Amino acid sequence: MIACNRFSPDLCMAEKPTLFLEFHGANDSEVENQTLTVQELCLAHNGGEFKSAQGTEEMHRLWKARHSVR
């Protein structure tokens, strides 16, 4: 996350181990259910803060920061 924040200063993510996941489904309801399931698993296993992108623009910003790190 240190590298992601340096590449994208507007990201301002906590600089600790982070897992990026991408969900797919036939419709928004499937994706929402997957997101909620993973959020519950994170909470049940002390996974720390859980954030999900709200909208396409935010999702692209996060993935760009993740994929552009060198």
Radius of gyration: 13 Å
Total individual domains: 1
Number of helices: 3
- Secondary structure: helix percent: 40-55%
Structural class: mainly alpha
SSE ordering: HHH
DSSP, total strands: 0
Categorize the overall geometry: globular
Question: What does the largest sheet look like?
Answer: none
How far the N terminus sits from the C terminus, by CA atoms, comes to 12 Å
Question: Strand fraction band?
Answer: under 5%
Overall pLDDT metric? 88
Low-confidence stretches: none
Based on the model shown, name its key terms.
mainly alpha; 0% strand; globular
Task: Describe it.
The chain has 70 residues and is mainly alpha-helical. The chain has one domain. It is built from three helices and no strands. The termini are close together.
Summary?
The protein has one domain (2-68).
Which helices and strands, and how do they pair?
Blueprint: H1 2-7, H2 28-44, H3 56-68
